[in-house]
Specification:
The chain is α/β, with parallel strands linked by helices and 350 residues long. The protein has one domain (2-349): Histone deacetylase domain (Arginase, Chain A). 38% of the residues lie in helices and 11% in strands. It is built from twelve helices and ten strands. The chain has an eight-stranded parallel beta sheet with strand order 2-1-3-10-9-4-7-8, sandwiched between helices. A two-stranded antiparallel ribbon has the order 5-6. Strand 9, helix 11 and strand 10 (327-330) form a beta-alpha-beta unit. The chain is globular, with a radius of gyration of 19 Å.
């Protein structure tokens, strides 16, 4: 099943942001699948909510505060605080107050509108999880989401809200699941998710007895952002990016041939570490920025071929299907003009 909401495709230049992010990735994927004659069942956010009998709006302020600090959430509902958060999260302002890759005079939409768009992205991730749990095929790919860098009290890496953890905590709170795996294959470590999971455990919120309710794996560049020297020098102990996932798999530049074997080993370790418990759901953070033609400079140290990207996703898909584990997939990182290709070819291969 596919979840696709065309109204969520945003051109960053409409906000005066000049960061080179391709705007048409989801629509290019859909066009390719249509051209290939693929007939996945499809939903928009509205049709998915109606099918699942879920009232809208779906994500409330209380859902955000379950994951992020109340002070940070409050700042997002304050126009001045929100603008400051967006400027810092999207790295649009320098230390001296000058703008970086931001031309507000060219904007045709208010910068603060980005927050509403990210709230709707969280809706999509939550709905994708619910669709995967309800669907006989045990599979839903959401052409959106994956903001795994957002932290407890701050945005980071273009991520204001961590839709992954917000959606999963809501599922757990509502009783739809008791154990969820996160399989994060974005080029960048899922540092915000790791921090949020650790903090929730420390507060005693995501354990059933002695068993964790959210268990995370991240396979990523060994030294690229946020694990670069500059970021690590500024990092605070106990906070991202210094917080470990349950299973971290760093890949050195030039080790692409080892990527799939190490991922397979990591998934086997997930099974062992959760003591044979079968998760109710797996959420796959399916970043395509490891693709060698993605075009993002900061992810260049990890350079998988198109065939390797498709093999990665097919391996995860088969691993979960064989174990009858429902899976929801979110797009996460992917930036250049070729970024649509790994996801499109993976879905077409199914």
């Amino acid at each position: 099943m596919l979840l696709y909401e065309p109204t969520l495709e945003r051109n960053m230049r409409d906000y005066g942001i000049t960061i080179p992010i391709a705007i048409s990735r989801p629509s290019q994927i859909m066009a390719f699948l249509t051209e290939q004659g693929e007939k996945f069942p499809r939903h928009t956010l509205a049709s998915a909510a109606e099918t699942l009998a879920i009232a809208t709006p779906i994500i409330s302020r209380a859902d955000l505060e379950r994951v992020h600090s109340p002070e940070y959430v409050a700042s997002l509902y304050d126009p001045i605080g929100l603008e400051r958060t967006i400027l810092s999260t999207y790295e649009l302002i320098n230390d001296d107050g000058s703008y970086n890759r931001y031309e507000p005079d060219t904007a045709t939409r208010p910068l603060t509108e980005i927050f509403q768009a990210q709230l709707e992205q969280v809706d999509g991730t939550y709905l994708a999880c619910r669709l995967a749990l309800a669907d006989a095929g045990r599979f839903c790919f959401y052409l959106g989401g994956g903001a795994h860098h957002a932290r407890y009290d701050a945005g980071s890496g273009f991520c204001i809200l961590n839709d992954i953890i917000i959606a999963l905590r809501k599922l757990l709170d509502e009783g739809h699941a008791s154990l969820i795996w996160i399989i994060d294959v974005d080029a960048h470590k899922g540092d915000g998710s790791a921090e949020l999971i650790q903090l929730s455990r420390q507060r005693g919120e995501t354990f059933s007895g002695k068993n964790p309710e959210i268990f995370s794996l991240s396979i990523h560049m060994a030294h690229g952002w946020p694990l670069d020297e500059v970021s690590l020098a500024k990092a605070i102990p106990g906070h991202a990016p210094l917080v470990e996932s349950d299973i971290d798999i760093p890949i050195e530049s030039g080790e692409e041939v080892l990527y799939l074997p190490r991922l397979a080993e990591g998934l086997a370790r997930m099974e062992q570490r959760t003591a044979g418990r079968i998760p109710d759901l797996a959420l796959v953070v399916d970043g395509v920025d490891p693709y060698r033609k993605d075009g993002l400079a900061s992810s260049a140290p990890l350079a998988l071929s198109l065939a390797q990207c498709v093999a990665r996703d097919r391996f995860i898909y088969t691993f979960l299907q064989k174990r009858c584990i429902p899976s929801s997939w979110v797009m996460a990182g992917g930036y250049g003009e070729h970024a649509w290709k790994p996801t499109a070819h993976f879905l077409a291969s199914l």
